[in-house]
Design goal:
- The structure is a single chain.
- The chain is α+β, with helices and mostly antiparallel strands and 165 residues long.
- The chain has a single domain (6-160), classed as 7,8-Dihydro-6-hydroxymethylpterin-pyrophosphokinase HPPK (Alpha-Beta Plaits, 2-Layer Sandwich), CATH 3.30.70.
- Helices cover 26% and strands 25% of the residues.
- It contains four helices and eight strands, in the order βαβββαβββααβ.
- Strands 1, 2, 3, 4, 5 and 8 form a six-stranded antiparallel sheet that branches. The protein has a two-stranded antiparallel sheet with strand order 6-7.
Length: 165
């Protein structure tokens, strides 16, 4: 990949259907995007679904390098979500796949379509735990704290999902 790349932290989530397959397929499709290279993946974490109601959610954090600007990256992720069967649903409802941009090279963006860093990242234990695996020295650009420090202040209600693949 030639040109200036940006480091991004991405969260994959699934709590419907074949959850592991959904995560793996999303990861595969992200890695096939022109201008994107998957660098490292966290373990998969299972936690209670915070939303309307639904089964436990599986989450995985991936670190990528990309040439794509954040809004184009978001569009590409939404295409992947739709292709994998995600429907336009109510906020916080169960879903086949969810692809969130947690951080884009420590940029701060406030737009109706994209907020960076992710506005609830500091409240999500499994996301923070995943970040400690894929980028241990990452510092939240708003709170100026490492993910490990933010994680230590939360009730850590998640488990490592069994490695079945």
């Amino acid at each position: 990949m030639e040109g200036k790349t940006h480091r991004c932290l991405i969260l994959l989530g699934s709590n419907q259907g074949w959850r592991i397959w959904n995560l793996n397929q999303a990861l595969f499709e992200i890695n096939c995007l022109p201008g994107v290279i998957v660098k490292i993946c966290s373990r998969i974490y299972q936690e209670k679904f915070i939303g309307i109601s639904g089964p436990d959610i599986l989450n995985q954090v991936i670190r990528i390098e990309t040439l794509l600007p954040p809004f184009l990256l978001l569009e590409k992720f939404q295409v992947i979500e739709k292709r994998l069967g995600r429907k336009k649903d109510k906020r916080w409802s169960p879903r086949i796949i969810d692809i969130d941009i947690l951080d884009y090279h420590n940029w701060m963006v406030a737009d109706e379509n994209l907020i960076l860093p992710h506005p609830r990242l500091h409240l999500r234990p499994a996301s923070l735990k995943g970040i400690t695996e894929v980028f241990p020295n990452w510092i939240h650009p708003v709170f100026n704290k490492k993910a490990s420090s933010l994680l230590a202040s939360l009730d850590q209600q998640f488990t490592i999902y069994p490695d079945v693949l």
